[in-house]
Amino acid sequence: xxxxxxxxxLMWPVIVFGVLAAITGGFAKDIRKARKxxxxxx
Length: 42
Fold this sequence. Notes:
- It contains one helix and no strands.
- The chain is mostly helical.
């Protein structure tokens, strides 16, 4: 039971990191595309 609870608690930081990495990657891609096209990101 302890191993299951430990796994459950430790999986959340991994999920959060994955979501933040996806958001950051998409934002970086948009910034690169805007710079290439010569326009503002805002």
